[in-house]
Amino acid sequence: MADLAGRSLVEPGDFSIEEMEDLFGLAERIETEKGFLRESCRGRVLATLFFEPSTRTRLSFEAAMLRLGGSCLGFAEPGSSSASKGESLADTVRTVACYADAIVMRNPKEGAALLASRYADVPVINAGDGGHHHPTQTLTDLLTIKRLRGKTEGKLQDSFRGLTVGFCGDLKFGRTVHSLAKALSRYPGVRLVFVSPAELKAPEYLTDGILQKAGIAFTETENLEEVMGSLDVLYMTRVQRERFFNEEDYIRLKDSYILNKEKMENAGKDMIILHPLPRVNEIAEELDADPRAAYFKQARYGMFVRMALLASVLGEVKC
Fold first, then answer.
1. Mean pLDDT over residues 168-182, rounded?
2. Model confidence pLDDT, tens digit, residues 25-38
3. Which helix (H) or strand (E) is 46 found in, with range?
């Protein structure tokens, strides 16, 4: 059983496949066993430091901590923190670590979570650092795929074997895409398909620097319809206005891919649609009733896996 007590989570590779498998086992027990781990974190405090807006990630962490019996403090936007006065990130996390047992942080700057983990003497969990990583969303995504499309028997290494996972939308700036693709590169037999306009292609550090070196098969295309029938999982993403320096470029690209019933006609009956949310208009609301639409299930699984993570890094349970 993995012992994650005191560990930070900055990027997906910080935990081994075996440690993630143990976390998923805990999350599944939390979901199915009434009362499991409830009150295990009573008296513990989680600090949520969000220098960027968030709904699901922040609230799911707070809900996870409250369901574990702990409490939360923090801020939901930087204007309410001393960062607005010029305080350094290092000083912020050092101070907050005096009050909390763990820190969850989102920051628009790549590498901010790594910096925070070096200065805080409590576990730091990265809730998104710019266009870099979002490891707890990756845990959520992997658990969802495992539950809905993965093999139910055998080790986690075999759960995704043979799956074809498509990523569609903003693949250049999408930290959820980068994190999940990097995590999937650790599993043999996975095939990835990247669908995006040329301006929003997945970065070369991911395709050439990680996937090719790992021997993961991948293709790139601008046409979603031509690959739809080959996908087991379709991971939709929004075009992120906040990542663009030029408003005209955002307006030109924001409606590049809109998934609707017509496009889904070519999809397999068992394919699942995932989305890290929030969506804007890239998935038509008419698809919410489609049994293949799994993005709200995905959000719920996120709370369970974050409960498992918090209880583990706080040392209240071994995976």
1. 90
2. 999 999 999 999 99
3. strand 45-50
CB atoms < 10 A from the CB of 32, how many? 9
d(CA 155, CA 96): 38
CA 105, chain centre distance (Å): 13
Cα 120 to the center of its chain, rounded Å: 23
Catalytic pick from 38, 56, 94, 297? 56
Given this model, what pLDDT does residue 233 score?
97
Q: Is 106 a catalytic residue?
A: yes
Q: How confident is the model at residue 145 (pLDDT cuts 50, 70, 90)?
A: very high
| pTM score, whole prediction | 0.91
Helix, strand counts (H, E) of the chain = 12, 9
Task: Specify whether 134 is catalytic.
Answer: yes
Q: Measured between alpha carbons, how far is residue 16 from residues 13, 157, 287, 295 in Å?
A: 7, 11, 35, 26
List the catalytic residue out of 32, 34, 85, 213.
85
